[in-house]
Amino acid sequence: MSKRVDEILGWYESDNPGVLKNLRWIMETGALAGTGKFVILPVDQGFEHGPARSFAKNSPGYDPHYHFELAVAAGCNAYAAPLGFLEGGARKYAGRIPLILKLNNSDSLYSTPDPKPAVTGSVDDALRLGCAAVGFTIYPGSNQRDAMYMELREIAEEAKAAGLAVVVWSYPRGSSLSKKGETAIDVCAYAAQIAAQLGAHIIKVKPPTEHIEQEAAKKVYESEKIPIGTLADRTRHVVQSAFGGRRILIFSGGEAKGTDEVLAEIKGLADGGSFGSIMGRNAFQRPMADALKLLKSVQEIYRAAK
Prior knowledge:
Layout: H1 3-9, H2 17-27, E1 38-42, H3 45-49, H4 51-55, H5 64-74, E2 78-81, H6 83-87, E3 99-102, E4 104-105, E5 118-119, H7 123-128, E6 133-138, H8 145-161, E7 165-170, H9 185-197, E8 202-205, H10 215-223, H11 231-241, E9 248-252, H12 259-271, E10 276-278, H13 281-284, H14 288-304
Parallel strand pairs: 1-2, 1-10, 2-3, 3-6, 6-7, 7-8, 8-9, 9-10
Antiparallel strand pairs: 4-5
Helix pairs in contact: 9-11, 11-12, 12-14
């Protein structure tokens, strides 16, 4: 048994053996097994952005089986997707990798300044498909946030009772925030805190920038001299904001970019104490061989981090 995995599980003091078993399953799977570090493959972009925008760069990605194969071959800790993609390979790949069923999703055919994803799956679906966890997106900053928080509260209660872990995509977005504010350091840290307070076991946020959105927060960052000059500094602060680092906090891969840029960002996140990355487009939009090489490089960076 890994001492690091046992240490992390010890932070979840209210959870039942089923939840702890599934968290352990995720942490003891793949190339980073036992390290307490994570590289997870998420493929919800087909729903969120449309098929051509998501898969035309690497056409095998239209097939749900491709993403199961990529996640398994790369040694990812888990594979996350909406209902349809998981159903598309659940039998063939049963038990080969922990699955995370994304329970709410948006599409890009209609946009609004204050978005709210639709609930598109259930805890029963996750149990039927043999998942280790459910995933749920919230948009702090949207005027629909209260409804999302209440939906998450009900789903998290049901999932935990059934022994499933809860993964929260906490993505600030809405009419109360500027575009720069969506990834501002104060806003990302606040998003991590909100997800932790809502009972998430694993929290996903975007890499934070040096921008500070809220004037009230800016005064504190300046008076307390909170370091935010480097990505490692900012990552360290966001991790601290998730209960002093006692919640698993991972970062999204963001927009598609070149390999050197991806790895430089991962190095900054790892140096700042990130638990890992959940990387979609930057992996599955590459040919399989290139995606595997990239994901292995990302895993090595996290393995080497203290």
